[in-house]
Amino acid sequence: MLIASGSAVHPTCHDFSTPGFGRWILAAIWSGTATMTVGGQSMICPPGSLLLIRAGTPYRVIFAQGGDETWIFFNPPTAWRDLLIWPETVPGVALRATEHKHDA
Predict the structure, then answer these.
(1) For 4-60, how does the pLDDT look when each residue is reduced to its tens digit (9 = 90+)?
(2) Assuming Cys at both sites, which of 37, 56, 70, 100 could form a disulfide with 20, CB separation 3.0 to 4.6 Å?
(3) In DSSP terms, which residues pair with 35 in a beta bridge?
């Protein structure tokens, strides 16, 4: 079930931390490069990244040069659980990076 969604254009040096949300998150990075840190492990999220974040995962994300992202918070139905088993890049976060091009 979809709980909430949103998007933001972040300024330079945007820094966000959370002790974890009680919902799953699916996020897309459209522009800028984010650095996400979970439990002392970091990963780079370039434009075109799709992130799947397990419920309860504490993380910090920094957009050093600014950026644009969209996200949804959701509670997956039980039948979806097997579909959400993605290889994790850092604990609790799966990263799928694809090339993203804006139409001119």
Answers:
(1) 999 999 999 999 999 999 999 999 999 999 999 999 999 999 999 999 999 999 999
(2) 56
(3) 44, 62
Q: How many CB atoms lie within 10 A of CB 14?
A: 18
Q: Radius of gyration of the chain from Cα atoms?
A: 13
C-alpha span between 9 and 18 (Å, rounded): 19
Cβ atoms of 65 and 12 within 8 Å: the answer is: yes
Work out whether the CA dihedral 84, 88, 98, 8 comes out positive or negative.
Answer: positive
User: What's the one-letter identity of residue 23?
Assistant: R
Q: Are 71 and 27 in contact (CB under 8 A)?
A: yes
- Helix (H/G/I), strand (E/B), else coil: 69: strand
Could you tell me the pTM of the whole model? Answer: 0.88
Sheet holding 49-53, edge to edge: 2-10, 67-74, 24-31, 49-53, 93-97
